[in-house]
């Protein structure tokens, strides 16, 4: 049975992610350019782009291939970089508990930082799990279109972004724009500040695990605060 999308929430998701996709256009161009510089043929670059739908992992893999790194090093590096998606998928699981296996696979394959962040920032607008899923699919389609087009253009024309543009800053700024409006309570702001400081302190951890460790500790802190509040309310 085919999945029927509610166009209202699909369009809402598509439009909601547009303001932050501008940050991935130059990033996609850099990845496409890296594929070309690595010596990948066109079909190889496009296959890698579509099969490994993760910008940071794509860029790291291309750079490692350029240095003739061992295959297992490239694979392990990609897995470590993408380990944050374990947290994203766990947070999305409740919305997909009644979805078909094909829908779950499609949502998992299309999962990106931007789609998850946009969905999380707009979750108060959803009336059901299906509304959330349709909204997410809208963000995913927009992201797919912009990302793959950017990588394609980068492969053909090279990195067309001016050297003075800081790609990392542009991407981080787009997430900050999504995060800040969701910090509605003192506890939200405290956990956000705590995780920000901790991420800086753990930045130098080996294998770039600082972000993952920060996320786990911050989640544990949030869980502790929530449970302490629940116990207080019961008394």
Give a description of the structure:
This protein has two domains: 161 residues, no CATH class; 53 residues. The longest helix is centred in the middle third of the chain and has 29 residues. The N and C termini lie far apart (49 Å). It is mainly α. Helices cover 73% and strands 0% of the residues. Helix 2 packs across helix 9, helix 8 packs antiparallel against helix 9 and helix 11 packs antiparallel against helix 12.
Question: Would you spell out the secondary-structure blueprint of this structure?
Answer:
Blueprint: H1 7-21, H2 25-38, H3 42-51, H4 55-66, H5 71-81, H6 85-92, H7 101-109, H8 113-121, H9 129-157, H10 167-179, H11 186-201, H12 210-234
Helix pairs in contact: 1-8, 1-9, 2-4, 2-9, 3-9, 4-5, 8-9, 11-12
Overall 3D geometry? globular
Order of helices and strands: HHHHHHHHHHHH
**How many beta-strand segments?**
0
Residue windows where pLDDT falls under 50 for at least 5 positions: none
Please estimate the helix content: over 70%
The biggest sheet, with number of strands, parallel, antiparallel or mixed sense and barrel status, is: none
Estimate nothing, just give the exact number of structural domains: 2
Q: Which structural class fits the helix and strand makeup? A: mainly alpha
Mean pLDDT: 84
Please, how many helices? 12
User: How large is the radius of gyration?
Assistant: 19 Å
CA distance, first residue to last residue: 49 Å
| Relative strand content | under 5%
Outline:
The protein has 235 residues and is mainly α. The protein has helices spanning 7-21, 25-38, 42-51, 55-66, 71-81, 85-92, 101-109, 113-121, 129-157, 167-179, 186-201, 210-234.
